Structures are given as C-alpha cells and as structure tokens.
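pasting for ref
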Amino acid sequence: MIFSVTGKVIHTEPELAVISCGGVGYGCKTTLTTISDISGSSGDVTLYTHLIIREDSADLYGFSRYEELSWFRLLITVSGVGAKAALTILSGMTTNTLAVAIASEDAKAFTKLKGIGTKTAQRIVLELKSKVTKGDELFSVAEDYSAVTQQGSASQEAVSALVALGYSQSDAASAVAKLGGDKSVEELIKGALRSLAGM
C-alpha cells in the first residue's frame, strides 16, 4: 500500500497533480481543493494516497488533507459512486458541508454537482447517514447538526429562517452549528449570515 507521497509539485491540471518523489513523478488524481492547497508551493508537499487497481489500469488518488482521503474512501463504498464521482463531490463541497448534507438528508445538495443524479444523491444519503452520526472526529460537524435538530430551540429556528432566505438546509445547519449554543435566534441568524457571506 502507498500511504503517501512527498516531494515537489512538478505539474498540475484540473483533477491531477504530479509529485516528484525519489526521481519518479507520481501522477495523482485529485480534487480542486487539493490542487488549490498545493498550487504555487515551492517546497515539498505530502499527498495522502489511495491506489485503485483494475485489470486495465492502476490509478493513484492523492489528497492534501487526510480528512479528504477518508471521505473519498467512504464515498466510493456507495453503490453507483465511483472514484470520478467522489472527486466531483469533494471538488464541489467542503467536507463539512458534505457531512451536514448527509446528516440532514439533503440529497438536493448533491444534485447541484455535475454528473450526480437524483438516484445517486439519494443513495449517498441513505447509505452514509448512519456512518456520519457515529462518534468519529471526522464527522463532528454532522454530530453538531444532529444536536441542532434535536434541540428544537433557537438553533433549529435559525436554520429554518436561513432556509426560508434561500440557503440550503445543509449550508444553513453547518453555519449555525459552528456558532454553538446559548445565543438568541437573532444572534444565530446574524452570525450564520456573516459566515455564509464569507465574512
């Protein structure tokens, strides 16, 4: 198993990064997030990798964050979701938004991505929901979302208000979950709006 590769970035293009390691250029299929993380780096970078071997190919997938690799491995366990679709999802959503979309059963969040149809989106939610509510650090944002929905209090009201303003349920819940409790509905909405606006 190739756990990771470390070296200089010698080439990038959409969904591909080539890392020079020990005189060999390792071509790693990857996400736009990882490309953004490593682009312009003059020193060594490390990509955490996953190797998929088929009869006619051997493809190496690399990610600048181990969390992203973990999500990639989880997504490809879903029936009908291959490596290409998993890269599309991870390029179009942050891991936090992905966790909340699954926890909140927001299948529509996935259908906004190119090549992800309604049935595939529903399978992702159905097959992964139980996995993102377990006590794992990787899914802490999903757990925060679950806490928000179970409280039935200011947090849930704030999420509902943000959805009414046009935000997706997963984006709204993620923004509110980050703010924590002990705040009024108004404070939560204002804080979430600032977060969603990138302030």
